[in-house]
Amino acid sequence: MTLPPILEAALTEFSVEHVLVLGMLLTSLLLVAVFMERCFVVLRARLALRAVRKIVATARTDGLEAAHTASQSASGVAKPVLLAGLDRATGRVPGDPRMALGRELRRFAGALKARLWLLATAGALMPFVGLFGTVLGVMASFEAIGESGQGGFAVVSVGISQALIATAVGIAVALEGVLLFNFLQNLIGKLNRELGLLVDELLELILVLGRDDAVRPEG
């Protein structure tokens, strides 16, 4: 079976090394897309912290029922965390508020870290992909020298310099992945700490206010 001339020329022009370089460049674009999407999610969560602070302040001043009403009308990705605790604290849902808040807080942290593994994997894998492309390029260069019967540093240096492009691209994409991963990890870690402190304060209010309601005499 003979290939069409255009396809045969394309396969001749683009070796495995070129395909690897193209794949690494496409991976770089994918990393940027993941980074932008995660930044949008983190920004939404950051804006939701304002509502969380208001609801915790409402629980501190007006009680758990008022805080539950405020949390129902609130919006944001942190809303389920508060409702999980307040529903149980006000008796609407049976269960332990402490366990519910901890569970939803872990779920919230997991949602923020979704797809970060792509950045970490690219940071660890891309240098080896680039090195593999370089090895293939050097092997092809020496094979061409053997077939032509011409050698010398001038001939070898051209092929090797072209092959080293794959390693350079792999290192560049790896650095991109590591930098974006660390940047997002720092943002998400700070956001989780702030929300965790607010959840701890809400849980403290739930324990105190719930105990006060329990000891308050009827009538």
The percent range for strand residues is under 5%
Residue share in helices?
over 70%
Principal-axes shape call: rod-shaped
Low-confidence stretches: 6-11, 212-219
Number of extended strands:
0
- Which whole number gives the mean pLDDT? 83
SS field, number of helical segments: 7
Q: What order do the SSEs take from the amino end to the carboxyl end, as H and E?
A: HHHHHHH
Total number of distinct structural domains: 1
Question: Distance between termini?
Answer: 95 Å
Q: Radius of gyration in whole Å, from Cα?
A: 29 Å
The main sheet comes to: none
Q: Helix/strand-derived class?
A: mainly alpha
Supply the key terms.
219 residues, mainly alpha, rod-shaped
Describe this structure in words.
- The structure is a single chain.
- With about 220 residues, the protein is mainly α.
- It has one domain (about 5-210).
- It is about 85% helix and about 0% strand.
- The protein contains 7 helices and no strands.
- The protein has helices spanning about 5-15, 15-60, 65-75, 80-90, 95-110, 115-150, 155-215.
- α4 runs parallel beside α7.
- The chain starts with a helix and ends with a helix.
- Mean pLDDT is about 85; it is low at about 5-10 and about 210-219.
